[in-house]
């Protein structure tokens, strides 16, 4: 097996909870040496649960530093001089106060890449920016749920995870450039950017996004969740070829073009709902997948994990989900999360 694609790169992390640690764990899975700089009390996520912490910090090393002291700053400078990047997710005021910016650290290493992962930007203030709060503030909660019900949120930290991935991308892009510099990534900006086609429709044509029943797509019809004889099915018909194959299997006629299906949305959904009620979600999945039609029965997380044992790995005493980036000829070394301060000070 080859070394990881990021072997030889050292990344420092001053992170807490989810977004920043998830970003650097992705880098560690790809072979980077990640040193997690923690206060003597540790990252607060250590207090959530052992498996929570492990799910975001496997494969790293831990060092305890009091960054607010002269000694902590001296040791930070030494680490920066020997590293390629520093990723921080703290409040902007703390990032500036502790000197965790490129402006403050370039004197120790002009090629250091400094990534600030915050709620509203490095100069956007210190308002609390938890995942669910930012989803509410950027229009995502208003788009989610049934039209006649309240807005709702997904059952996992989609804002934190998405922002962590974006921060990792920005960090690597600047390293590839060969230049040091400051990267600024915020939860708010990432979520707004992920509303891409909704935002474009509003900005260019004044179209206000609508919340539709069963998570229906705003353009494609039928593309949503449907009840079946047992369970729900996600069906995603994005072009006329899919429709022809689906309608033949389901015994439907008419609505031959995407434009017609969009214009006659309610009629299409009525006939599709009636057809799907004749079989179970899992049976529909088994019938439609060989035809190349995007469809899946709604499963629980345990069911999904049981169906994909190759996505479950062992890191020390923990069973965790594997890296989603697969590199030919390379197998990540899934090491356990670090003991607090095991790398010294």
TrEMBL record:
The terms under GO molecular function for this entry are: CoA-transferase activity
| Coiled-coil positions | none
The record, for SUPFAM superfamilies, names: CoA-transferase family III (CaiB/BaiF)
- Which controlled-vocabulary keywords does the entry list? Transferase
Q: According to the lineage, what is the superkingdom?
A: Bacteria
Which Gene3D superfamilies would you find in this protein's record? Crotonobetainyl-coa:carnitine coa-transferase, domain 1 (3.40.50.10540), formyl-coa transferase, domain 3 (3.30.1540.10)
Q: Which InterPro entries match?
A: CoA-transferase_III_domain, CoA-Trfase_fam_III, CoA-Trfase_III_dom3_sf, CoA-Trfase_III_dom_1_sf
Identify the stretch annotated as signal peptide in this record: none
On whether Hydrolase is a keyword of this UniProt record, the answer is no
> This chain belongs to which protein, by name?
CoA transferase
């Amino acid at each position: 097996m080859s070394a990881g694609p990021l072997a030889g790169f050292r990344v420092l992390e001053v992170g807490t909870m989810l977004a920043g640690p998830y970003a650097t764990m992705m880098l560690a899975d790809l072979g980077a040496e990640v040193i997690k700089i923690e206060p003597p009390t540790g990252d607060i996520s250590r207090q959530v649960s052992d498996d929570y912490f492990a799910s975001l910090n496997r494969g790293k090393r831990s060092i305890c530093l009091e960054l607010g002291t002269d000694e902590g700053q001296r040791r930070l400078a030494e680490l920066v001089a020997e590293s390629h990047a520093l990723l921080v997710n703290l409040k902007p005021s703390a990032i500036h106060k502790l000197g965790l910016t490129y402006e403050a650290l370039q004197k120790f290493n002009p090629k250091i890449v400094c990534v600030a992962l915050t709620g509203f930007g490095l100069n956007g203030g210190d308002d609390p920016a938890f995942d669910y709060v930012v989803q509410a503030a950027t229009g995502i909660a208003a788009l989610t749920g049934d039209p006649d019900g309240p807005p709702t949120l997904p059952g996992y930290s989609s804002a934190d995870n998405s922002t962590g991935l974006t921060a990792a991308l920005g960090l690597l892009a600047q390293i590839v450039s060969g230049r040091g510099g400051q990267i600024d990534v915020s939860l708010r900006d990432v979520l707004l950017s992920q509303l891409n086609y909704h935002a474009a429709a509003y900005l260019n044509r004044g179209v206000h996004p609508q919340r539709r029943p069963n998570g229906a797509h705003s353009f494609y019809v039928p593309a949503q969740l449907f009840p079946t004889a047992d369970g729900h099915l996600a069906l995603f018909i994005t072009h006329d070829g899919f429709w022809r194959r689906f309608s033949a299997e389901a015994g439907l006629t008419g609505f031959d073009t995407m434009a017609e299906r969009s214009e006659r949305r309610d009629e299409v959904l009525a006939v599709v709902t009636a057809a799907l009620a004749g079989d179970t979600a899992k049976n529909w999945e088994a019938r439609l997948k060989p035809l190349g039609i995007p469809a899946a029965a709604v499963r629980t997380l345990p069911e999904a994990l049981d169906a994909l044992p190759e996505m479950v790995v062992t890191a020390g005493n923990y069973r965790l989900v594997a890296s989603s980036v697969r590199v030919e000829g390379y197998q990540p070394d899934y090491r356990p999360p670090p003991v607090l301060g095991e790398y010294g000070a």
